[in-house]
Design brief:
With 312 residues, the chain is α+β, with helices and mostly antiparallel strands. The chain has twelve helices and twelve strands.
């Protein structure tokens, strides 16, 4: 039996650069692991089928669960190993909020690929696992690689960079609010497609601009003030106007003295960066008291340089 830790991510930077022939968007991002994680245990099953056990009501349907899709992909790609070892029993302990912009489903899928690789003694390399991960979703290769990375293409092309200083993070999300990622990108296209690059040849220049820009240098130098000033997320332009409560939350974090605050991915989770755990606790208390909303969930965690890994 194996136990894997599957950490969430936040986006320190998300720029939508253009359309792609496959219907997705050309992105330039910085993805960053945080310590908040799900736990998966993988074991051989008595059944010839994969089984996923999860107590989260919204994840009971296997067809909707990326863990099941990842296990199915492994069975299809490695039929000999599947024939030899049979189905995998996967227990998923869910701690990362779902449909939250934190890659919760993606990191569970990444852990499933990593775990089955070990369980079936497949000997796949990290690039091979990342290639399988890209078949399941755009940010799943990052969850395999972990740490801090510049992601381009659909989000699957990674350039791992040095992780920033271990800042503390307060996450907040309205319980009943979920933002559909396809909706966010579709709405962005409707409103901002005139800003898209016409020429795909110009895309690498955008990635190079980020690479040599102030955010990456702030990360490299561990300059948290500079880092905070250059966080960016294009999807805020569509999600914040559609969900004023997310804007309100972001404003509350800014007023309460966070180093920086921003929506993660397609939202609706808002994160705020702090120098210490004490400051994070204080920030949470202040914002919770100000918002006075029983539907608002808070999590305190910190930046992490580790992607999916085996539990010790
Ligand atoms: O790849 P993933 O399943 O995470 O993508 C979810 C949705 O987000 C896609 O169906 C698409 O609508 C949108 N998306 C996009 N461009 C990307 C990544 C995601 O338009 N690069």
């Amino acid at each position: 039996m194996l136990t894997l830790i599957a950490p969430a991510k936040i986006n320190l930077y998300l720029e939508i650069v253009g359309d792609r022939p496959d219907g997705f968007h050309e992105l330039v991002m910085i993805l960053q692991n945080i310590a908040l994680n799900d736990r998966l245990t993988l074991d051989f099953s008595d059944s010839p089928q994969h089984q996923v056990i999860c107590d989260h009501a919204q994840l009971r349907d296997p067809a909707e669960n990326l863990v099941y899709k990842a296990a199915t992909l492994m069975a299809q790609t490695f039929p000999t190993a599947f024939g030899k070892y049979g189905g995998v029993l996967i227990r998923l302990e869910k701690n990362i909020p779902i449909a939250a912009g934190l890659a919760g489903g993606s990191t569970d899928a990444a852990a499933t690929l990593v775990g089955i690789n070990l369980l079936w003694h497949l000997g796949l390399t990290q690039p091979e696992l990342e290639a399988l991960a890209a078949q399941l979703g755009s940010d799943i290769p990052f969850c395999v690689a972990g740490g801090t990375a510049i992601a381009t293409g659909r989000g699957e092309k990674l350039d791992v960079i040095t992780s920033p200083p271990s800042l503390w993070v307060v996450l907040a999300k309205h319980d009943q609010l979920a933002v559909s990622t396809p909706w966010a990108y579709k709405t962005y296209r409707q409103q901002f497609s005139e800003t898209y690059l016409d020429d795909p040849e110009q895309v690498p220049a955008r990635a190079a601009r980020l690479h040599s820009g102030p955010l990456v240098s702030a990360i490299a130098q561990g300059d948290s003030q500079q880092l905070a000033e250059h966080l960016y997320n294009d999807l805020e332009k569509v999600v914040l106007p559609a969900h004023p409560q997310v804007q309100k939350l972001r404003d509350a974090f800014a007023q309460a003295g966070a180093i920086a605050t921003m929506m993660s991915g397609s939202g609706p989770t808002v994160f705020a960066l702090c120098e210490s755990e004490f400051q994070a606790q204080d920030l949470k208390r202040t914002v919770a008291a100000q918002m006075h909303d029983p539907e608002l969930g808070f999590w305190i965690t910190h930046l992490s340089s580790q992607g999916v890994h085996l539990a010790l």
